[in-house]
Amino acid sequence: MTSLANVTLADLDIFERGEAFPLFDELRANSPVHWSEEDSPNHGFWSLTKYQDIVGVLRDTDTFSSQRGGANLEELDQEQLDARRSMLETDGVRHRSLRRLMQGEFTPRAVAGYETFLRGLTATTLDAAFALGEFDFVKEVAADFPIRVLARMLDVPDTDIYRLIDWGNRMVGNTDPEHADVLSDSEESEQYRLLPFKSPAAQEVFDYGHELADARRGKGGTDLVSRLTNETPSDGIPLSETDFNSYFLLLVVAGNETTRHTITHSMNYLMQNPDQLALLQEKPELIPWAVEEFLRMASPVYHFRRTANKDTEINGQAIKEGDKVLTWFAAGNRDPLMFDDPYRMDVTRNPNEHMSFGRGGPHMCLGNALARLEIRIMFEDLLPRISGMQSTGEVSRLRSSFVNGIKRFPVRVELA
Question: In total, how many domains does the chain have?
Answer without folding.
Answer: 1
